[in-house]
Design brief:
Layout (H helix, E strand, L loop, with lengths): L6 E5 L2 E6 L2 E7 L5 E7 L16 H21 L12 H39 L8 H23 L3 H21 L6 H6 L8 H16 L7 H10 L1 H16 L4 H17 L5 H14 L2 H8 L4 H13 L1
Helix pairs in contact: 1-8, 2-3, 3-6, 4-10, 6-8, 6-9, 8-9
Length: 321
């Protein structure tokens, strides 16, 4: 497989695909038409040099993903609101946009804080309950990691039972299938996408899995005696953990190394919970999102010996035989 460096996420009845700073959101509207919106995304960090520094770039990339994800989710949800909102213009529109940015920032901050409490602080205190059975720091760190991983998997398992989330996971599967189809050198059409894998090494699910795994390793080096200090250090190390996890998944997504493939397997297994097989209408939405921001024919021509037009001709010859 050849990495295309495109990524995306599922939104409400649609898919967002991002290529560089450009992103497209394709949504299946209630009337079954597909609406495609293409925009430029401005990173929270305007200095491009900082966004290229290993281990640091992962932190900003994660926050950018949260911001863009919530923004595109809100956009897709706007097609399914019960009541039409009043269209604002001029100063009123600017004021509304300012309020939305503030709310977005607060939501991202709250989401990060909630994730830290649930997946970092809570497992630590749960593991401390077992101090009556063992005083080994190594054992308690391993137990803390087990609790952290269990909470993560239970959380995914619970939300996957929700009907709306199940459809979102189907779109998530369509997103992965499209990218896999392109990166395998196949023509981007419904049939090829349908037959492609719904698992991908660069998936955000795998990133979160690596965050859980790396946090276990990092916590082995926390030797502070004070309980408050131990919790504080865990929180302070979250950016480092996110940075390391990003570099691992970035390397995995651009490599067919056997070791990296082995490390990627657990995260891809978890993707069985966060993706579902999409129907053809969802695949169509995914293809529209990809083609709005990515020239897959040029990519395949540069990455593979046989370009897309030649493949189409070969496919037609096979069908004729």
């Amino acid at each position: 497989m050849k990495s295309s460096n495109i990524g995306g996420q599922a939104v409400l009845e649609g898919i967002m695909m991002k290529n560089g700073s450009r992103y497209a959101v394709a949504v299946r509207k209630p009337n079954q038409e597909i609406e495609v919106c293409v925009k430029e995304y401005q990173s929270i960090v305007p200095w491009e040099g900082i966004r290229k520094i290993p281990f640091i770039r992962g932190i900003f990339n994660f926050i950018d993903s949260l911001v863009l994800g919530m923004k595109t989710l809100a956009y897709s949800a706007s097609f399914y609101e019960d009541e039409e909102e009043e269209v604002l213009t001029g100063e009123a529109a600017k004021e509304q946009e300012k309020k939305e940015r503030i709310m977005m920032g607060m939501t991202v901050a709250f989401s990060i804080m909630a994730a830290v409490v649930i997946f970092m602080v809570l497992p630590y205190f749960l593991s401390n309950i077992l101090k009556t059975y063992t005083t080994s720091r190594v054992a308690l760190t391993v137990i803390e990691g087990v609790f952290r991983m269990a909470i993560f998997l239970v959380y995914i398992g619970l939300i996957s039972r929700m009907k709306d989330i199940q459809r979102t996971f189907m779109y998530h599967g369509a997103e992965h299938k499209c990218i896999n189809c392109i990166e395998q050198g196949l023509i981007l059409n419904t049939e090829n996408v349908r037959s492609s894998s719904r698992q991908h090494k660069r998936c955000g699910t795998s990133f979160l899995f690596f965050v859980m795994l790396v946090s276990i390793i990092v916590c082995f080096f926390i030797t502070a005696e004070s309980q408050v200090l131990r919790v504080g250090i865990r929180i302070a190390l979250m950016p480092l953990i996110a940075g390391i996890s990003y570099e691992i998944i970035r390397l995995a997504g651009n490599s067919d190394n056997k070791v990296m493939n082995l490390l990627s397997r657990p995260g891809m297994w978890v993707q069985n919970m966060t993706t579902r097989e999409p129907d053809d209408s969802m695949i169509e939405v995914a293809i529209r999102a990809v083609e709005a921001v990515f020239d897959w024919k040029t990519y395949q021509k540069e990455s593979f010996a046989l370009d897309s037009e030649e493949k189409e001709e070969s496919a037609e010859e096979v069908q004729a035989v």
